[in-house]
């Protein structure tokens, strides 16, 4: 289908003409920002739910182009199959898509991850999200202090190891400390800043309101 510049979200928008599926806004990018921030009548959503919304719109676009039925929960069902862990179910849906002339592999490759969506919003679009006024500063300050202390201790320890010739290149590297949260019910693990942004650690073990349509 040709070559496309920009990040993966940009390429998908251009390649599949996704601006056409966003009648409420001038462009899909504007719609993404509005949903993320909770503007223009939308409820604010996090990266994961916004990514799911985007990927479903991509899938629906292909359904419409190839005359595939979108009634009921057909799109949600097929999306869950294509992105889930059930290999047999994924294969069955892929074969069904191919029967309707849809490139299932191409669709799966074009779908984006929440990390890619996060990068698109923050870096490509320069988006900023208003701070929740209900949050106080002391919690964030405590996390920053803990992170800073951990980084300083790690730097001191690495410097000592370098002086003992147990590791090389320390003087040409930097230490990065990231606090992550892991769901107790499954292997899901996310950075703290992402958990704060989306309001939960694991979407499968946290009750969430209905995804904005």
What sequence of helices (H) and strands (E) makes up the elements? HHHHHHHHEEH
Shape: elongated
The class by helix and strand makeup works out as: mainly alpha
Instruction: Please tell me how large the radius of gyration is.
Output: 21 Å
Strand fraction? under 5%
Question: Helix share of residues?
Answer: 40-55%
Uncertain ranges: 208-213
Q: Taking all residues together, what is the mean pLDDT?
A: 83
**Which strands sit side by side, in order, in the main sheet?**
1-2
Give a written overview of the molecule.
The chain is an all-alpha fold and 213 residues long. It has two domains: 8-124, no CATH class; 137-205, no CATH class. Helix content is 53%, strand content 3%. It is built from nine helices and two strands, in the order ααααααααββα. The chain has helices at residues 8-15, 28-37, 47-66, 74-83, 87-99, 104-110, 114-124, 137-163, 192-198; strands at 180-182, 189-191. A two-stranded antiparallel ribbon has the order 1-2. A hairpin with a 6-residue loop joins strand 1 and strand 2. The chain is elongated and about 65 Å long. The two termini are 29 Å apart.
